[in-house]
Amino acid sequence: MPEDNNINKFENPHYAKREVTGPDGEVFTVDPMRDYFSDARPQVHEPNSIPVIENFLNWARAESLWVLGFGTGCGSIEIPPLLTPRFDAFRFGIQSRPTPRQSNVFIISGYLAIKTLKRVVRSYEQMQNPKYVLALGSCTINGGMYFDSYNTIKRLDHYIPVDIYIAGCMPRPEALLAGFNKLKELIKKGKAENANEYARNFDWYKANQKKIIKDWNMPDYNW
Amino acid sequence: MKDLIEKLSKTFELKDVVFQRPDLSFVTVKKETVISLVTHLRDYEGFSHFVLLSCVDWIEDNLFQLTYFLNNPDQKYDLAIRCMIDRTEPTMTSAHHLWKQIATYQRELKEMYGIDFPGSPRLNENFILEGWDNIPPMRRDFDTKKYAEETFFPRERPKTNDPSKYMKSKLYPDE
What we know:
Chain A is α/β, with parallel strands linked by helices. Chain A has a single domain (51-209), classed as Rossmann fold. Helices cover 34% and strands 13% of the residues of chain A. Chain A has helices at 32-35, 51-62, 79-83, 114-126, 137-142, 173-189, 194-200, 202-212, and strands at residues 18-21, 27-30, 65-68, 94-97, 105-108, 132-136, 164-166. Chain B is α+β, with helices and mostly antiparallel strands. Chain B has a single domain (2-171), classed as NADH:ubiquinone oxidoreductase Nqo5 subunit (Beta Polymerase, domain 2, 2-Layer Sandwich). The A-B interface holds A 1-3, 5-10, 113-115, 118, 141-143, 147-155, 158, 208, 211-215 and B 114, 124-126, 128-137, 142, 144-145, 147-148, 151-155.
């Protein structure tokens, strides 16, 4: 329902241009949309031309998986037992980090509302390359039990590229461990190149994201 | 419980009293008397706990039904006050001055049903939906499946084989 008096429906006050007084009394203008964010598009990182070095790098990448501590939907409750003594993902070399800047595996653990998708896109773009996405549950594949929901996305791979789908509703931590082993295999074979796919098809992904997220009140590029 | 209803009916015009359980009753009142009844119950009858404010869309009667659910923690019973409001221009008196949390319920009802509560704080800010530009989604004339198929990118279903047809073609290929 359109409103005339909506205060911040399509404008984020945090990103508004404003005058700031410095500690020594100097007044300067801050435009967060330009000053705080990079306006460079994502880069494609070509694999090393020497196969031995590339294989070695892929082996190293496969053995250092850091999960972003970001839980969406009901699957987020499966992550704590996965990382703690019961299933102990650390024996596979998998640990969690609280910030996207320091992690390279994104577990989308269930359904995504549009509001969450916005945060997911931001977090995904802030993660370092090479980055991998594990999508859990039928909700990320085709919407699952939310197939007719007005607020839940139906297929995740239209918004961010997905390396591994783990089917189930919800998948148990054992299934997650199997998914991690599969991801390691893919990385070692050099097939987990979805961060590059995102950079190559960037316009397509952005168009899809903007079709869904109607109040795009954040910068286009978030790294 | 019945004593209370009798006592209230002397002062207020109560319709459709439903004694659902020994500790739960529903009464229907006019739209104008809701706030005074809720205030009376809070101040004089010990209903100090506000449980919820919900809405039902009676699209056939062109009405919204609002339910103010109150709890008396000392007597341990619930009383729900219902009122019907017009669906085409849904406006209701705000009750956020009675309990602070009602403002949040009213924000939700504004977003999900489009009911206006003039004077309620932060009413027009986004609550759950961000940038919603369609009719409020919990109204029954909003076709959520159609909207989902048009807006999101539905995955095409895999082809399924009817087992009887498949076996027939397998066993009797000539027919």
